[in-house]
Design a protein that fits this description.
This protein is of the alpha/beta class and 270 residues long. Helices cover 29% and strands 18% of the residues. The strands form three sheets. Strands 1, 4, 5, 6, 7, 10 and 11 form a seven-stranded mixed beta sheet that branches. A two-stranded antiparallel sheet has the order 2-3. A two-stranded antiparallel ribbon has the order 8-9.
C-alpha cells in the first residue's frame, strides 16, 4: 500500500509551496479587512510552524531541531521566482521567514498570473528532488498551491504530470488552497466539513473548477486519520485536496497526519 512511510530525519518530507503574488492578490478578500496576500502569508506561517514543531524534540530543558522537512517556495506573477535559498531544511526556512518579519515579501506586486510557468518551475525541481537519496524512499512530496485562482494560463496539464511523479512510497500530492470562500459547499466548521468530491461542490467558477481538477484525491491514510482524530469526522471518500480559506487549518492537519501518523499514534521518530 502506498503512503505508508512516516516522516523522519532519515526519510524526510519535502514541501513545495507555489505562491500567487499577482496583482489580484492585493485585492481585499470579500467579507474581511485583509488583502488576499495576507491570507497567503498566514497559511505559509501555519505550514512552517507545523513542520518545525514536528521536527523539534525536547532534551531535558533544551529544544533540539532535527529537520524532518525540507521546504522549497516558488512565488509567481507574470514569472516565477524561488524564495530564499532554494531547497532549505525547515530550520533554515523558518529562520529566513522570521528574519523577514514572518513574511515572504508578498504584496500583490508580481504583475499578471502565469500559473503555468510556476508549475513548470515546480516540475523541474520535483523531478530532480525525488531521485535524491534524501527523498526517493520518503513519503512523497506535497505541493501546496496558494492562489485566488485567477490565472491567465492553465497549469492543469502540469499539475497532472506532477501527480504522476513518485517516490518509492507513492505519487506526489498536489494541494490547492483557494484564497476565497465562493463555493457551493456549505458548512459551519470542521465538524460538518465533508470535503470537495465533485464539481457540484465547487460552483460555476471556471477558475475554481480548474483548481479542483488540479488537486490530488486524498489518500485513504490521510482521510482516515482525519476522521479517527475527529478533526474532520465527516470527510467523504473521494475528497480532493482542495480547500478554501474557511478550511485553512486543513493544510496544517494534512501535514500532521501524513505517513499514517495520526495525532494519537506512537510518534517514534528516527
Amino acid at each position: 500500500m502506498a503512503y505508508e512511510k512516516k516522516i523522519s530525519r532519515t526519510e524526510p518530507g519535502l514541501i513545495i509551496m507555489v505562491v500567487d503574488d499577482s496583482g489580484s492578490m492585493a485585492d481585499y478578500l470579500p467579507g474581511t479587512t485583509d488583502p488576499k496576500y495576507i491570507w497567503v502569508e498566514r497559511n505559509v506561517g501555519i505550514i512552517l510552524k507545523e513542520c518545525l514543531g514536528r521536527s523539534t524534540e525536547l532534551k531535558g530543558n533544551t529544544a533540539e531541531i532535527k529537520p524532518r522537512y525540507y521546504i522549497y517556495i516558488i512565488i509567481y506573477g507574470s514569472e516565477p521566482k524561488v524564495w530564499g535559498s532554494g531547497e532549505m531544511d525547515i530550520q533554515t526556512a523558518v529562520e529566513q521567514y522570521a528574519n523577514a518579519n514572518n513574511s515572504l515579501g508578498l504584496g500583490g506586486i508580481c504583475g499578471g498570473t502565469n500559473a503555468q510557468a510556476a508549475f513548470q518551475e515546480a516540475i523541474n525541481f520535483i523531478s530532480k528532488a525525488i531521485t535524491q537519496d534524501r527523498f526517493k524512499r520518503s513519503f512523497p512530496p506535497m505541493l501546496f498551491h496558494l492562489t485566488d485562482g485567477m490565472s491567465a494560463t492553465d497549469a492543469t496539464p502540469l499539475a497532472q504530470q506532477i501527480q504522476q511523479l513518485a517516490t518509492e512510497d507513492g505519487n506526489v500530492l498536489v494541494v490547492n488552497a483557494y484564497i476565497g470562500t465562493q463555493t457551493n459547499l456549505n458548512y459551519k466548521g470542521p465538524e460538518d466539513f465533508t470535503g470537495y468530491v465533485d464539481i457540484c461542490d465547487i460552483g460555476s467558477s471556471e477558475d475554481n473548477i480548474r483548481l479542483f481538477n488540479m488537486s490530488s484525491e486524498t489518500p485513504d491514510c490521510i482521510r482516515q486519520n482525519l476522521i479517527d482524530d475527529e478533526i474532520f469526522p465527516n470527510l467523504r471518500e473521494g475528497s480532493h485536496l482542495f480547500f478554501d480559506v474557511r478550511t485553512k487549518e486543513m493544510l496544517k492537519h494534512t501535514i500532521q497526519v501524513v505517513g499514517s501518523l495520526g495525532s494519537r499514534a506512537n510518534r517514534m521518530m528516527r
